[in-house]
Amino acid sequence: MSERHSTARGALAERDALEPDVYPVTQGRLARVRGSELWRSVFRHPSLDTPRGRALQSFSNVFLHIYPVKVPARVLRFRYSWRLGYIATVLFAILVTTGVYLMFFYTPSVSSAYGDMQQLRTGVGFGQLVRNVHRWSAHLMVIVVIVHMARVFYAGAYKRPRQFNWVLGLALLAITLGFSFTGYLLPWDQLSYWAVTVGTNLVSYVPLLGKVLRDVLIGGEQIGQTTLLRFYALHVAVLPVALAMLLMVHIWRVRKDGFAVRRGGTGAFAEGASVVDVAGDGDGDGDEPVVLSPDATTDASTTDDRRVRLLGVVERESVTAPERLTDDTVFTWPHLLVRHVVVGLGVCATALALGVAFAAPLRGIANPAETPEPAKAPWYFVGLQELLSRYDPLVAGILLPTGAFVALLALPYLDRNPATEARNRRVAIVIFTIVLAVALVLTVIGVFFRGPGWKFIPPWHHSYVEL
Amino acid sequence: MSMTRRNLLRTGWKIGTGFLTAIAGWTSWELLRPLAATSAGGKIKLGNSANFKPGTATYVREGRLWVANASGNLFALSQKCPHLGCRIPFCESSGRFECPCHGSVFDIGGEWIQGPSPRGMDRHPLTLDGDTLVVDTAKRIDGPDHGAAEHLTPAKGPSCAGKG
Q: Can you give the pTM of this predicted structure?
């Protein structure tokens, strides 16, 4: 017993010896608890206000080690990325939390789903609020993900080496829309029933397979029990897993591909870094694979003010061995994390405020024998509906949207211009802005200016906005 | 390429993975594909054919369809708009079918008059069993193309669109 005790004390003393000057002196009850073996077995190191301690905060924490230990200082500026990816992630977390709460009170059955929604409104503590927050967060997430995509485009951040992360981002956008669409049906009211009827019938215009695909999606000819169950399974099981998996890879790639593009630089390399020119021919492209001596990889305190990091022995094209000034970066903890906590709280407060101020709509129970006027698809598909009310369904419903999505997917591979500055990529920016503006105008017309019979009715005459 | 043990295993893995993916895809598809028996309806007796007067459209809730009499010609018309699947109500004042979603308008015989619908209203076959009219909801015939004007008549009166 005494031998084991002394061994444990010896190990602690050895650990303390790593930071002899800054290790907290155990004084007081709380400090004694923090110094105990039990505490230290859970929290592997104390919270040290030293460079090493700050590095350990993110490096040795399973939840935080998705962050790098240090980030370029400019990442801290809000305007740098508007934190849009992070905001979307926070919204997803809110949706998962509120969604789990809602699952306790919901049965995916046509005979009880609508009653459950009413019960949630009137007979469950904070039920209405949680549903409101869930709904508005879902709408916000769609908006934020789209704005995130637009920002990445305008920053030119989809260019090499981040092409694949752009593709992953688009997949996440598609999943986000899938989430919102499948969730739309679950209240089983007139709004959800007919919006999903209109939305799923878009699929039937796919050449050859359209009707079969639509039937597989809704599980029959009519929207009914099978559809509700399918959408529920997709909404609470398939899509969350898919989104979580892709999101992990997406964030991982943000780290691995470098945080963002240096203003005025090219999209080729990360963090505004120049490549170590191993070949020494001055062209900066690193003609040979980077091979560093063991000293260079282990000893961070080099004699000059530069650091070199070996990321791995990989093909020449992928090597990003940054040569940068040490004062160019700051510790993730606390600088970036504090900002993330503040933004996260802001997002939660916004979602909560929306939930308190505006009730999520619940119309009458779904009635297949009566279409309400007007029957609009969910707002993010209303632009498509607007196109469909004017042009051939095959062109407007399938070829145009599919073409636009495929073009976006292929964008980083088609756009060979390495420049990231707006003035050097005017054509791409003009085309993208036009597409975005057209989509926005069509959506605004569909949401605000369309009434019964899809007639043009200005919102100041009568509002037919459906959210 | 010589078939070394490594190559054999590598090829085996690829073929095996491809085979498993195909099997997984096929079984998932079969699992999710709605069976014809569950999606199709059946035959519904509609009563005496003389009950359906010219110029009227009667809703048959059981079959989710309209039985319309266009100048003596009876049609069983699917309530579902061929455009995006909304239910098409019959407007008594105009004597036409008017879709509330995107404004497609059809004649009492289900022929397309205006709007984004790609064709006229879909039809179900009607048969006579003695005096009894029978509709087969399991079979659906695509509605007539644009331009068909066999039963087209002028509107009786004002349109219902916009009246809620």
A: 0.81
